[in-house]
Fold Tyr recombinase domain-containing protein.
Amino acid sequence: MGLPSVRLHDLRHGAASLAGAAGVELKVIQHDLGHSSAVTTADTYWTVFRELAHGAVAATAELLRSHADLG
């Protein structure tokens, strides 16, 4: 079908990233993956999707605007 090969481990990374994008807490993802450290989960298994990054920038900009001295 012309699709790239996918390893089971790749699916694990994808599942962790999708869970993070869905708002699942890092400690829950850590537990589900069986990691002893959330640092391993965050640094190795979690990808920041473009939409999340844009949302974070927008939220930060809105916070700055709401606290700006416009007087």
